[in-house]
Amino acid sequence: MEENLTMADLMAEVDKSMTRIYRGQVLPATVALVNEQGVIVNIGYQADGIIPWNEVSVDEVDHSSIKEGDTFEVTVLKIDDGEGNVLVSKKRAEEQNVLNEVEALFNEKKTFTVRVKEVVKGGVVAPFKGLRAFIPGSQLTNTYVNDLNAFVGKEIAVEIIEFVPKNRKLVLSGKRLAAEKAQSEKEAKIAALEEGQKLQGTVTKLMPYGAFVNLGGVEGLVHNNDLSWVRIKHPSDVVKEGDKVDVVILSVDKETGKIALSLKDMTTDPWFVDAASFELGQVVTAEVTRFASFGAFAKLTDNVEGLIHISQISEKRIHKAEEALEIGQKVQVKIIVLDKETKKVGLSIKQVEEEVDDSMKAYMSTGDEGATLGDVIGNNL
Prior knowledge:
By secondary structure, this protein is an alpha+beta fold. It has six helices and 21 strands.
């Protein structure tokens, strides 16, 4: 038994003496001894390998964490350190393995998560497997970043956009992934929206035709007509950027993502409140507010406006409303159209004048000495 064991040992020693190693080679190693100078390992060679403590790991190492019998890989730094030992590095072997892993991630276009450590010129640094990875400011996310420091300490999903193993150059990007995440979240939020739903949002942008409101990841448009019950010239007449507003969803296009909103209180339309006091055929006082090619508009109240068609302005033939009326002029009109469904009101000055003429004729023909002209006209109006 001893003879066989001795022969086996001898054969192993012979194998070791015949084994050749070279600089940069990665070998399996077993810890034989740990001392203050470093770690002595068996590498299957005629000489032991020596790992200085600064070559054990990229991080600071607790000497007690390495024990006899531990196994790992090492990279050959020198075949002979001057004392017959082979100088090897556990750290370099790990780094090579890391480079191989990173290259595989790059080639396979896989994604992973990193934590941003610090801000540098043009971007940020995020350590990854011992490598100093750089993320350009424009590649941090899918939106413009005003302050890069806001990302320090945060974890972000990234992919490799450039990798040069020789220079250990690693450039990452979170832009595409952030855009995909935002789009996915947007689609989910749009899918959950329903017509008639009431939400609170923030005014983000004003345009001549309306205001855009952020509903928390999705934006909707409040058209000018839906900003106020009264006519406005610009959204700034009602809201400003940054305002918190309560809105009602008028419509949602699930395919295009377009959302129409209303800022008006749908239950208290002041038009209907004011129009409730008017009746068809009633004669009221109106104020001329504006002209159109087909007539003039006049307001009955601040919320109700009606059209005096050009054919209803005067018995005389006129080509433009301006020939008979002035802006701000108050006139007696008869309500000849009152469509509450479409909120359209038609007015006539001519019919009021005709009724006054008829009343005057009736008065002149009766000769009733007990009634005044004012009484007759008042009764007909």
